[in-house]
Structures are given as structure tokens and as C-alpha cells.
Design a protein that fits this description.
single chain; 91 residues; alpha/beta; four-stranded parallel sheet; 3 helices
Length: 91
């Protein structure tokens, strides 16, 4: 079982700032980061870019990123953009 190093509720209106802040907090983080997407119903291009940037930072630190409660439409966008392999998913 992995150690949960960070748990964040992602606000639908603040995806980019939340991911930028979380990316800055990855230094010294081990285990996994859980991002709760229960309030997110859509992703714009800026949010998608922020997710990719965050995943890159987590990869560099060997931190696993888990997306929780992802809406099916958000998942479809991630799948179409071929970034689902960078995340784990929980309900």
C-alpha cells in the first residue's frame, strides 16, 4: 500500500492554480498524491496543460498521481488526449 502524501480537493473553477500549487509542494513528497475531481465536470485547454505539467513533475519525483471521482466526460477528454496512462483512477 502506498503512502498518501497529499490529498487535494480540486475546485472546478480553480484547477490550474490548485495544480500549480500542488506541483510546488511535491519536493520531498513520497508515495502518492490523490486529487479529488468530484466537482470537476469539464476541462479546458489550460486545465489539461496544467494536469500534464503536474504529471510531469510527479513523474520526475516518482510520485504516483491518483485522480478520484472523475466525471465520465472528463475521463473521455483525458482518454482522447492520451494522458490517462499518466494517472491512476479511483471512484
Amino acid at each position: 500500500m502506498s503512502l498518501i502524501a497529499m490529498f487535494l480537493n480540486i475546485d472546478a473553477n480553480g484547477i490550474v492554480p490548485a495544480l500549480n500549487e500542488a506541483g510546488q509542494q511535491l519536493n520531498g513528497t513520497e508515495g502518492e498524491v490523490v486529487l479529488d475531481f468530484s466537482s470537476v465536470r469539464r476541462l479546458d485547454s489550460a486545465a489539461l496543460q496544467a494536469m500534464e505539467d503536474f504529471a510531469g513533475k510527479a513523474d520526475a519525483k516518482t510520485v504516483k498521481v491518483v485522480l478520484r471521482n472523475v466525471d465520465v466526460n472528463v475521463y473521455r477528454v483525458l482518454k482522447l488526449m492520451k494522458v490517462t496512462r499518466r494517472f491512476s483512477f479511483l471512484h
